[in-house]
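This week, look over our next protein:
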Amino acid sequence: MSLAAEEFHTDTGGAHYRDGAIDLVAGSMGGVASVLVGQPLDTVKVKMQAFPEVHTNLLGCFRTTFAGDGLRGLYAGTVPALAANVAENSVLFCAYGFCQKLVARVTRTPDVAELSVIGNATAGFVAAFFSSFTLCPTELVKCRLQAMRETHGQLDVGPFGLTKRILRAEGVPGLFRGLTATMAREMPGYFFFFGGYEATRALLTPAGLTKDEIGAARTIVAGGVGGIMLWVAIFPADVVKSRIQVEGSREPMLRVMRTILQKEGVLALYNGLGPTLLRTFPATGVLFLAYELTKKSLHSLFG
């Protein structure tokens, strides 16, 4: 057995699974923090994407939603959003840790901490494949709740009632409408997400310190940059996903995108980008801060 293979084999012991469990918990904490900060603007984003003829600008959509339903309207879909973010980020960061080790092994990098920006980005790309399966059903319920006033005239059901309604009408496949679009969004998106985060952390690391010692403010900035890079790269796919999930469409992703382009033009694929970027910087900033702090605390506790 080669030295690299022997090291990987040894790492699949207790420490390997402990690291995975820590990444799982830390990712969950990051997901909770992200939702609490960013949910109101996420609601505005989904409404602008699904009903561009009704909601033509950010402030107007915000005011209409608040006037009609108050904070409850702005935080519509928070329960499935929490479920989605905890499920997605726990699986994402757990898979990311394993994928970092896999990329390090393939590239013969002796330590995960020494992976290049491209190496970390590639690990994020592969990890997002797995997290898409946990994200799609909860994201679908969230989007339909957020758009319920426009589709039903009022918020007449909660997340669990809506899930039962979908299962009765469409079965389990109904919860996975937009899975292809979700993967098309998530995988390239997280390439830029983790690549942007790691590149910014490296740039913000003072001489003589490691990336883990840059402090809370720089970690938030790095997370915010990663989030912005993600959304700028994949926003058209997110618009298509929202349309498919809100409308319950069975059409392929590319056909839906072509229909939007033909009827509404290119700019329709960027409806809601403003509130998304406003939400993303603080939301992904606190996501990474919560993740890094939780990870550091758990490694200290169980190190």
The radius of gyration is 20 Å. DSSP finds eleven helices and no strands in the chain. Residues 14-50 form the longest helix (37 residues).
